[in-house]
Amino acid sequence: MLRKTPLAAAIMSFVAVPAAAPLYAYAQTAPTTQVQAPGQAQTEAVTPAENATLPAVRVTGQADTSNDFQPDKSSVGAKVPTALRDIPQAAVVVPKSVLQSQAVTSFSDALRNVPGVTIGAAEGGQIGNNINLRGFSARTDIYLDGFRDRGQYYRDTFDLESIDVLYGPSSLYFGRGSTGGVINQVSKQAELKAHASVSAMVGTSDRYRGSFDINQPLSSTSAIRLNAFGQDLGSTRDVMKSKDYGFAPTATFGIGTPTEVTLSALIEHNRDQPDYGIPPVNGAPAPVSKSQFYGFEGDRTIQDVQTVSARIKHRFSDDLTLRNQTQFSHYSTDAIATNAAAVLTGPAGNSPALANGNFTSLPLSSLFVRLQGKDRNINDHSIYNTTDIDYKFNTGFLKHEVIAGVDLSHETYSNQSFTATTPGLPSNTIAIVPLLNPQYTTRPANTQEVATNLVESSANGIGIFANDTVSIGQYWKVVGGVRWDRYEASIKNTLNAPSYATQTNFFTSVRGGIIFQPTDWQSYYVSYGTSFNPSLEALTLTNNQQNIPPESNRSYEIGTKWDLLNGGLSVTQSLFNIDKTNARTLQTDGSYTLDGDVRVRGYQLGLAGHITNKWQVFGGYTYMDGEVVKALDNTNGKTLANTPRNMITLWTTYDLTPQWTFGGGPVYTSARYAASNDFVQVPAYTRWDAMAAYHQKHYDIQLNVQNLTNKHYYDALIPSDGGRAVPGYGRTFLATLNYRFY
């Protein structure tokens, strides 16, 4: 019997469209059920009359969908909220209802719901959220309400309405970056309906958290909202702990009027324990306890984030809207961190070091680890402004929606690094500890720290774009757009070469798609998009890259989007191919050329919504074939780092009674390599989570078990030093009380 590969099976599913029609037809005969939150009165679902004509206002109808897993719009497919079926690319929207049922509070944990996302490292090391999307780094492709959120910090979900992910190159709307896609955090907005709630969470391993959400109308057209949180979290990892807090105020004036003004801010403080993971031995993470930590008790990362924004929207008519938004952000990081570097065959500083996967026949008890400092002070500033116009008009039988605008940006970045050395040991070595059971102590008192390279960089950008969605008759839409970017960046080093570099890049990005919608529950599309990655994209520089033009990326995608079971269940599929056709590759003389080729091909499936009025699901599957097709170094022909072939995420809940909800599901990730040299492979894993909740009108009591089976698995991968892997948390019990005052 001939077995089909996942990609072949995916292709077969595309020709099975007729099989879905009977399912939909059957669902159409079923009675329509109004879904509402447990314990919620039916009258609460009625939209106030004064808001009935304001579909663009986010606050309308929220009571109906507060517990719904099925989103219908995305903020990331265009500059305005757009129906998912009208976006000719794969997109996933993770609503707050999913996050709440999972008791998820961190940005990285929230992205476990998104197939194709893996956790990795960024320029300068493992600080903050470092995301890979479809095999490519998305560290600078994280957005907050449509603006680049470029800081290296640990994001929280306390002020998020949803997390929206758009797959594939998308420079048309977002400028530089977005090789694998973009991730947009959608903040909670002020509403005209008053509400207030508090939440308290306690858990095993000394986990404590509290938060509140207060919304208060000021008049019939204005309101303010304040979200805040504070937490003190322990961990199943030895020594690891964090203490964080944050505030997010917002005020909106002119709700429902032609002119609407919104002022908002995000203020967050993190004091976390940096975790640089476990070194490899014999081509895999060293087989040590999952709680093992390689570092010192005084290690910590202190981060402060201040972001303020102002948005003005004026509606001239139902067909013409003008928007302007400005955002200013400051990020600071003070890190005292340690990483497990080389694995040594002896305890002395001059002991031989293993390499290339650290293969050895020596017992683990004979191996030692060199601990190096990763101390640095980082300051990041950015100011962004965008002005765009949304214009709907007809030319004969063609209906147009044109979104055009201008993006302006100014960014600065500084990174002061330090070298820490203990006398008697090699440079930048703090200690040499046994691989097995190292003692947890503070740094040696005689450790000497010296400031080394200071990086100071800045960038100015301008982007001019236009996109037209043309409706042709009842069934067809054609999407096409173009963007021109000018990106100018400079960088100065005090010690490293080059001491100064500057670069100005010009790039034209395009996007095109055709959508066929034969019924209101079917949508089929093909699309093409491009993006670019300048050498100074992250405002950091590897030597000899300063004269290299931008890398360019292109994506081809074909997909389907169905709303089955009377529209209650969304099912999406896509086949995709992403090429980075002129990837930077390192030559033997230390210089770089643009003659590399990196490719990721795959298939993606997504599910979101109701199977019955009591049973909800949210999840997806992705198959990724990532390969370094061409390179001049030892990565030629190797598997792309941190790109597993198969990933599955599934979360489901069932309302057993109006008061009781039970749920759970797995997250599966197949084996993957820590770096694009195939030396260190991290094993596959399946993690199971579960929940139970009791609902009343004014409160919910919820119990979650994360990593139910206490699986030993590896979460984040770091390609440096041969390829390190950060273990995931062990079994954790969480109890949450949510109380609503009105």
TrEMBL record:
Keyword S-adenosyl-L-methionine appears in the UniProt entry: no
TonB-dependent receptor plug domain sequence ranges: 84-182
Swiss-Prot/TrEMBL GO biological process terms: siderophore transport
Membrane topology: Multi-pass membrane protein
Every TonB-dependent receptor-like beta-barrel domain range: 269-708
Keywords: Cell outer membrane, Ion transport, Membrane, Receptor, Signal, TonB box, Transmembrane, Transmembrane beta strand, Transport
Gene Ontology MF terms: siderophore uptake transmembrane transporter activity; signaling receptor activity
Top-level taxon in the UniProt lineage: Bacteria
PROSITE patterns: TONB_DEPENDENT_REC_3
Record localization: Cell outer membrane
Major place of residence: membrane
CC annotations in GO: cell outer membrane
Secretion signal, residue range per the UniProt entry: 1-27
PANTHER family named in the record: BLR3904 PROTEIN, FERRICHROME IRON RECEPTOR-RELATED
The protein, known as: TonB-dependent siderophore receptor
Species annotation: Caballeronia sordidicola (Burkholderia sordidicola)
Species lineage: Bacteria, Pseudomonadati, Pseudomonadota, Betaproteobacteria, Burkholderiales
